[in-house]
Every structure is written in C-alpha cells, then in structure tokens.
Amino acid sequence: MRLGPILLSLGIMALAMPTSAQNPLVADLSEHQIQITTGFTGTDVLLFGTVESNSDVVVVVRGPEVDTTVWRRDRYAGIWVNDQRVVFESVPSFYAVRSSAELDEVASDTVRARHSMGANFLRLRPQDRSVSAADLKAFKAGLIRNKRRQGLFAPEGEGISFLGGELFRTRLFFPSNVPTGFYDIEVFMMREGRVAHAQTTPLIVSKAGLGADVFYFAHNYSAFYGLLAILLAVAAGALAAFVFRKN
Amino acid sequence: MNIYLPIAEISVNVFLLLGMGGGVGFLSGLFGVGGGFLMTPLLIFIGVAPAVAVATEANQIMAASVSGVLAHWRRGNVDFRMGGVLLLGGTLGSVFGVWLFTFLRGLGQLDLVISLCYVVLLGVVGSLMFVESSRALFRRRRQADVRRKLHQHHWMHGLPFKMRFRKSKLYISALLPILIGFIVGVLAAIMGVGGGFIMVPAMIYLLGMPTSVVVGTSLFQIIFVTGTVTFLQATQNQTVDALLALILLTGGVIGAQIGTRVGTRLRGEQLRVLLALLVLGVCGKLLFDLVATPGDLFIIADSVGGH
User: In this model, does residue B121 exceed pLDDT 90?
Assistant: First the structure.
C-alpha cells in the first residue's frame, strides 16, 4: 500500500488546519481509479479527510446506475420458476454507506431520504408504476437482500474513525465483481442532524490489461471476436492433435 | 492464484479451472464422450452465468473435436458426405437454437430451460448408461449375442430425397440425417454440448451407419455446429469467454490424453457404472436446485452480457 503519501497528505492537512476555516470539510481518496486487471480479487480504497471538530461524517458511495430486474419465483408443478418481475429504474450497481456514529442519531429520516443515506432510503422507482404498494415493498427488500448477498451493497455500519477531533478515515472495500464505471463518493459533514457541508469525489472503476482488451473487442467487434474464437479453437485443437500424434 | 475472466466477469482460481478441464478431459478420454454435458453444469455450479457457460463450452468443444477428428481422418473414418448432410441440419438447428436462446433470455426463463434440458437429458442418458453397464457387469460371461438383421425396412425408407452414402454403405433419405443434425444443433446452442451422446446412438440405431465411421463423422459435424454456435453467440449475445475456453482446453487436452491411455488398460464396465453414477449425480443436483425451496424467493436477473 502507498501509505507514505497518504500519511504525508494527512500531515499537511493537519498543519493546514488552523487556516482551513473557509474549508470546513476536506476529503480525498487514496486512489481515484480502480483497475480490474487479470489478477483482480477486490481492493481497498482509503477515504480520509478533515472536518470541524464536534461534527459527524457520513460517506455514501454509489456506482453507475442501471435498470435492474427483480424476479419473484413461484412454484409450478413442483419447480421454482421466475414468475413476476419488477424493473427498477436507475439502481446504483454498487452502494455503500459509512458513518462516524449510528446513522439514526446522525441524520433525520428526511435527510437520509434526501441524500440516500442507507439502502432502505434509496429511491427505487419501478418502471411500471402500477405495481401495488405491498408488492413494491417486497420487491425492494428482495433487491436489497440480493445485492447484499452479491457483496454489491456493502454492509452498513459506522466504520469511520477519528484521529483526534478533526481527522477521519475509513476503508472502503470493492469486491472482485465490482461493476465498472463512474462512482460518486459523497462525504457529508453532519451537524445536529443536518448536512452542514458536502463534498463529492469521483472514483473510476475500469478494466485494464488483457481482460479489458478482450471485453472491448468482444463487444465492439463481435464478428471478428467470434471468428477469432473459432480460429483459436481450431489452432488449439490442431496443436493438441500434433503434440500427442505419436500416441 | 485467481484470474479475472473478462466476459464472465468473475474472479476464479486458475487451478480450479485447470482441474475441472483436466478432470472432464480425463473422463472424455476414458469413455470417448465429449464432456460438454458435464462441464457446462460444473461451470454453472462455480458461479459462471449459464449464458456464458453454454456459449464458452461450445467454443471449447470445437477445439476438442478438431483434435479428435484429425486422428479419425487419418484412419479414413470420416464420411464427409454424411457429415455434410448432418451439418446442413446442424447449421439450421444452431441458428434456430441461438435465436431461441436470445428469446428465452429476454423472457427471463433461459436458466430454467437450460436446467430442465439438462435434467431430462442427463437423467435419460445416465439411466440408460447405468442399466446397460450394470447389466454388462453382471452378465459378462454369458453373452447371448443376438445378431441383428443387416437390412431392416422401416417407414423411413419411404422418405423422399434419397442419397447414396458410399462410406457408410447406405442409400437413405437425406431428411433423417438433416433432422438429427437439426436437433443436435439446437442442443449445442442451448446446452453447450457437442451432442455426440445423442448423435452417436442416433447414427447407429436410426440411420444404421457402421460403427467404425460414426465417431469420426459425428466429430466432423460437431466442429462446424459448435463453430456456428460460437460465432452466433459471440455476435448476438457476447457471451463467449475465449480466455475461459482456453484455460479449460489446456486442462482438457492433457486430461484427455491421460484418460485415453488409462482407458486402453482398464476394463470398462466398472468405470462406466461410475460415469453413469456421476451423470446421475449432476442430474440430481440440478433437479434438487429446481425443486428445493430457494433461500430467497426474489432474484436479480443476470446482467452479464445482457446490455
């Protein structure tokens, strides 16, 4: 880990503290880019910064938004079948929330809803507005449960630690199945249940190296990719037959 | 050591993949089966999306069949004319199969259909194999060989479009091999299997081809059908993971060589019983997953490849 520069910047920030009155909230990430290489198994990103003393911090991480289909299974002739579906619009493909104290104590429900603090406060709208309220509730809960199981909605917890009264840090984990795209990381400085200051930091998750090239090729030149896959198979098969010919 | 598969979009241990390729390759060398019907469910069990597992397996089977057909070709065991007719049906079948695949995926019922096809086919093949091999095991000594008639006339000999297949010593309607090829093409597209385990019995018992040319000819046909499926899946669904196919293949080629050598030294009946049990085991696991009450009644539709 590149701890040196982080400590250095933390140190500089600590030194700059007395003059930072016009900037009550400063936060940054240890990295602004996550590269999914062939050996990628997930990674940690350190978020750190300073706030005015006696305030709380909430961090909300949201991945690129996509329409997400949730199925409810039902039993037909003894077999579980995808039966009913609800398509939710613009669901964050990745979501995490962290706070320096219990979210309930830090923010009121209105504030949590406005700033999507907590998976249950996410605005999840179905494409088809005619879904009944009871169904919608069940499907929403199902969506969140599934996302948590996939590790794409991170476990919610406090997890932000203070060093002294003003320096804070938290470690954000991105699993190996993290979706690619642009992430918004919002840092909120909370005072008396309200957002006193906010800052947004971008994070880019992208594929890199051979895997990225393969993916790009497969999606943008799919006919060539198909032909190449065929040639590869023929070559590999012929090579195998040649190598083991004597037998 | 983990590797991130670019199309499947998951991180898997390389040695697990090599081991799976080697293990299934070993079995295919030992029993002369393609192995697709074991590999696709295994890939699904380790978390590869069924759509990707099926398309990638088609790619891998193609390579395995190329290496297999060359040996048969050298011995003159390929009936190219029959292969060509089967292929005509196979190409039509795979085009239809990939279309069906895309259609079912749009409906959200693809995984179910793949599982159901597997349960039925593995169940039937496994049971037949189990009965046949355990019978052979117990009555090895007193084999009452009932000789079949050389020529039997069925309804199928009245079908039009008759063709002469010199190598297979047959004069039959082209419609039947086209139909067999078609069915195998559909199975290749939906299940990611070569279809040898359906085609070989069909060629022997339905068409009446001599056993010596059956395997070579079916491999010849499988190459082109899996090639067509690979291309169509790559262009329509972007679900062919060439990296995954290559890793499985590496393990598979080595495993198959070992399997072939071991196979020549062992008596087959006990092993065939084991293979039958393995096939039934995979079938049972798939069936269990279909029938058992899921831990969560809600599920997110697979987004891999579906943009």
Answer: no
Q: In chain A, positions 107-136, which contact chain B (CB-CB < 8 Å)?
A: none
Please report, as a single letter, which amino acid is at residue B190. I
| Helices within chain B (DSSP H only) | 14-31, 36-45, 50-74, 80-107, 110-138, 175-191, 196-201, 211-236, 242-265, 268-291
| Selected residue with higher pLDDT from A148 and B194 | A148
A194: phi then psi, degrees, rounded to nearest 5? -120, 160
Per-residue pLDDT band for B152 (boundaries 50, 70, 90) equals low
- Interface check A70 vs B, CB under 8 A: yes
Q: Are residues A215 and A118 in the same domain?
A: no
Residue B149 confidence (pLDDT) above 80 = no
Q: How far away is chain A from the Cα of B165, in angstroms, using its nearest Cα? A: 27
How many structural domains compose chain A?
Answer: 2
Which chain B residues are closer than 8 Å to A40 by Cβ? 2, 4, 11
- Domain positions in chain B: 2-138+156-291
Q: Do A238 and B257 touch (CB under 8 A)?
A: no
Give me the domain span that covers residue A222: 209-247
Confidence check: pLDDT of B216 > 50: yes
Question: In chain A, what residues touch B108 (CB-CB under 8 Å)?
Answer: 69, 71, 82, 85
Give me the pLDDT at residue A13, please. 55
CA B262 to chain centre: 22
Nearest CB neighbour to A139, from listed B227, B257, B298: B298
Q: How confident is the model at residue B74 (pLDDT cuts 50, 70, 90)?
A: confident
CATH number for the domain spanning A32: value is 2.60.40.1930
Per the DSSP assignment, residues forming a β-bridge with B11 are B4
- Chain A CB within 8 Å of residue B15 CB: no
Do A122 and A171 share a domain, yes or no?
yes
Tens of pLDDT along A164-193? 888 999 999 999 889 999 999 999 999 888
| CA B303 – CA B156 distance, rounded (Å) | 46
| CB contact A18 to B (< 8 Å) | no
Residues of A in contact with B70 (CB under 8 A): 237-238, 241
A182 and A247: one domain? no
Closest CA to B298 of A49, A45, A80, A226: A80
Low-confidence stretches of chain A (pLDDT < 70) are 1-22, 246-247
